[in-house]
Structures are given as C-alpha cells and as structure tokens.
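Hey, sorry to bother you again with one of my protein questions. I've been staring at a protein lately and its backbone has me curious. I owe you a coffee for this, so here goes:
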Amino acid sequence: MANMLPQEEQRHNRREYAGRLGIVVLFFFFFTGIMALVVILPASLVARQRVLVFTNAIEQAQQAAKRFGGDNLTAVIEETKQKMAMVSERAPGRSVHEAFFRIAKDREAGVRVTGLSYVREGTGTSTLGVTGIAATREGLIAFTKRLEGEKMFTSVHLPIANLTLDKDIDFSLSVTSTF
C-alpha cells in the first residue's frame, strides 16, 4: 500500500507512535511493579514476623537453659521432651496413620481394602472401619486373625453375615484401639 503522506508528516507519526508505545511499556512496568509489591509485601511481613517469633523463642530457651543449670541447650530440650512424653495422654507410637498402615500391611493376597474410616470416641478409644472385597472366605478369616494378633488393636469385629458367601465377599469389619 502506498503511503501518500508527506515525509515530514510520516516522521511526525512515527515519533508519535514511538512515544505512545513507550508510554504503554512504562505503564506495563509500573503496574507490574505495583502487582509485585502487592504480592510480595504481605509475604515479607509474615516472614519477618516469623523470624522475630523464632528468635524470641530461641532467646527464651537459652535463658531457661541458663536458669536450669548450664549452657547446654540440647540437654534441657531433651529433658523437657522426656517430661512432655510422660505427661502426654497418647500412647507412644500409636497413631491413626500407623493403624491404617498396619491394616494395609496385614491384609492377605486375596483381600482388597476399598475403604477406611476413623471415629474417635470420648473415652479414649477409637474405632476404625475397614471395608473391602475378599476373594475367598478363608482369606477374609486369615486377615481378621492377623488383625486380632496385632497388639495395637484391642478388638476386631467381623460380622457373621460377611461369611455367608464363599467367593467375592464384600466385607465390613470394625477395629477398636486406644489412640
């Protein structure tokens, strides 16, 4: 397409275009900077506050270590950890995660666990619900016996209705424990 404008007008239009393009680029960088500040400022404030909290906690621990005889902070921390373990209401090494792991570990080759549920009761005991499919009745009984053999579990209840079929048994059992 032929440009019919005089040379002077063409140069003027190029300068004006370059100026407007420069303004758009400056606005882009300006708004990018503002967005970066909006995103980074709260995170940096939170990080600074956490650093202050941790340094205060370390200073308090060092002061407590000096008060309780010695500059050995590690010994004081270990002693405090032992005291807290004695006071703790939970049995050591017993957690829901560990219970689910033991159930998965104890299952027989023909037993497939399809669901796990957890209910904590107010008396300190917890009930785990296990649902799944067993290939054979013998495999389901062996799985139940293995769970009963675990010291972590206080009782394992398999309803008798789960044993009516010989193969492809949909089962649901409940495991009681204290954790």
User: Anything to note?
Assistant: The first strand starts at residue 111 and ends at 120. Residues 47 and 124 are 38 Å apart (CA to CA). The helical segments are 7-67, 73-87, 96-106, 137-149.
